Amino acid sequence: MRHISITAQIGIGMIGGALLGLAFGPKIAGVQLLGNIFLRLIQMVVVLLIFGAVIEALGSLKSDQLGRLGGKTAMWFLITTLIAAVLGLAIGYAVNPGSGIKLASVSTSATVAKAGTNFSQTVLDFFPTNIFDALAKGNVIQVIIFAILFGIVLNRANTDGKFNQVLRFVKQINQLTVKLVMLVMKLAPIGIAALMAWVTATSGIKVILPLLKFLTAFGLGSVAFLIVLFGFISWYAKVPLRGLVRGFSRIILVAFTTTSSAISLPIEMEDAESRLGVEKSISQLVLPLGMALNSNGLAMYLSLSCLTLTQLYGMSVSPMSMVKIVLLSVIACLGTVVVPGGGLVALTIVVPTLGLPLQRIAILAGIDWFSGMFRTVLNVVGDTTTAIAVASDEKLLNRDPYKVHADKMAPKHNL
């Protein structure tokens, strides 16, 4: 009997769950509990996984690699995020998603928590006062800040091998954490099926219809971004395009169905190393950092959302406002919540700064789950392609997995 891959199982779970929700409606909404249990099991180890991975990655690097890798990673993050934000504006103007939507039929009640818009306070909140409090609350950006500093100190103090035992202990904890995550991922098909059943049971198809144009625009922008990014990375890293796309298949599916960069991270790290040939030292540094600091999908979502809101209310957007939208979209990505719903929190930072009433983001709340699918795919693909580019620069990219994938896809001829 042929074994069904976890990727296929997740796909079957997604489709089956959606059909169950549509067939039984609200009567089956209680199945959400299974999906929430799955999400919590993943979330309980994600912060520990990030914490240990960053420390191990920085602690294991040679001193001359430390600054070089950090600079390259930051450069790639900034470039891809800017491109995504600009592309969001371009797609918004091309599709004009804000036209033809009746606001009178949409509730204007607040549906998201109000977030502070003070930039200084936002930056200050990146830095923890108590690392144990940050770990307990799952504050990813604060955990990463501490892990970066601890990893740098460990790297510099361990030049003579005095702290090898500490580094070895961190590596062992990381190995056990990854094993735990992989165990939990066996429940992914059931958990994702339950979540999809709940979404369609409680909202039905009608949740998409009022803003179908917005979702279409976001989908088109996402596809365009992926085509450009895959094409460029295939050329830059000198890897076959087919093998590259195939290597990303499971990452994209998990990101699309869970709508969470944090939950996708374990699969992202595993496939980056085993299916995309990225050296472990690179993936453990770039991917956790990218999860908190590089949000290509969120940048595109924010710029497209702001433009859509101005179109809904017939407001003109000046060239300076366009620049402001792009810059705010990039800045708001720093430290944004990496679990489902984080996009709406980021909007509460950007929208008031543009002079738009905060209540106007309520119109996007009903489809946040669906727009989150596109956001998360672009986020994780952007992070992983950055890891591939950095690994290629450092001569730490194994191209054999791409050849294997290419061979599997090539037609076979009988001689």
UniProtKB/TrEMBL annotation:
It is a multi-pass membrane protein. One of its GO terms (cellular component) is plasma membrane. Pfam families: SDF. It is found in: Cell membrane. Keywords: Cell membrane, Membrane, Transmembrane, Transmembrane helix, Transport. The chain crosses the membrane at residues 7-25, 37-61, 73-95, 134-155, 176-199, 211-236, 248-267, 287-313, 325-351. Its main location: membrane. GO terms for molecular function: symporter activity. InterPro entries: Na-dicarboxylate_symporter, Na:dicarbo_symporter_sf. This is Proton glutamate symport protein. It comes from Lentilactobacillus parakefiri. The gene is gltP_2.
